[in-house]
Sequence to fold (451 residues):
Amino acid sequence: MDASHTLKNDFAQGSVKALIIAQALPLTMAQIVQLLYNIVDRIYIGHLKDIGDMALTGLGITFPLIVLIAAFTSLFGNGGATLFSISRGKHEEEEAERIMGNVFALLMLSSVILFVVCYTCRKPILFLFGASEESYRYANEYLKIYLLGTAFSMLSTGMNIYINAQGFPRMGMLTTVIGALINIALDPLFIFVFDMGVAGAALATVISQGVSAIWVLLFLTGKKAILKLRPVRIRIDIRRTKRIVTLGIPGFVVQGTNSLVQIVCNNQLQFYGGDLYVGIFTILNSVREVLSMPVSGITSGAQPVLGFNYGAKENKRVKEGIRFTAFLGVTYTVCAWLLIMIASKLIIRIFTSEEQMILLGAKMMNIYFFGFFFMAFQFSGQTVFQALGKAKYAVFFSIFRKVIIVVPLTVLLPMFFSLGVNGVFLAEPISNAIGGLACFITMWLTVYRKL
Fold:
């Protein structure tokens, strides 16, 4: 073990705020760039001549399945990363490497299973997710190619966490930057020059994810990594897997319930408004993903710092990190909300040139993002619970906000006061306020005050 690397990446030394920022900035950039894989696809597809709006709607139908794949990535990747960081804090390097190898094996196995199931059953799945006869054509065209890169997607995201958790966030950022730049370059080539349309967008994404996956594996098996992915460590151990899954369930539930909410919203919007509103929801989802990424980056950057210091029994530093993470998250989301209120039409125009979609989309955007800052409380509370190994709380509040609040409201609100599609979009801000405050207050009373 390189002693200088170990000292440099000891999160129990130096300013907690500086450590969180040092981790969060490149992670935030990396996660924003990661989104470009899909966001750029949506922008190009939305502006396809004559078919752009319907093609964008079809792409939105595939989101729940893509999110479900991300949920399994989070289940193993983030669950193992928590154990990995705690083991590093305890200076148990061999155990940390075994955890990383176990996660790699789980990601590979699950990617094969997901590909086979999703590819063979994609038609009934897409109609279940809210496709119409017209939008199914584009959804299927995209998904059947995208699924070929399932292993690339899961490895590039799930294993990149272990570069960041070792204190190399800039190197982790390069993983996504390289892939995104390739995707941005290939998208117009495949979509317009080769006239592949939606299929071209999917192919560009698969290739870029493949390059990212190779980059991650080269780093983790190379000389610069403090803890390496060694072939001898790549095996599934039942005991470790149970611990990984237990701690990964919060992230899985977050992503899995996101998928559930999207399915319910797509079906409700299809019923009350048709393909146009499903397309608008696709745009709003894209905007929400971009605007929520900095909060995710802040909390992701805080997680290894909090977990390391908790493992090292530095409770004062843990408390300082919790306060700082919450402050940054709320400050940013208030600014993002102001941006939405000021520039909603301009933002919608990035994805479409159809005037009806722009006007209706701007109206729905202001409903959907009302009180956006409450989301930061949910992110902060979830991160603390997960970083400190208190998975059951994180699981509960993920289920509470999405399953107990959002899904019922999405079904019931459109029926009351003739709200229709407005009720579908109104469910999100209500759930952010109730779920976010409940999660954060519980974390403050049950964890923070007892440290």
Summary: The first helix runs from residue 3 to 8. The chain has one domain: 12-450. The chain has 17 helices and no strands.
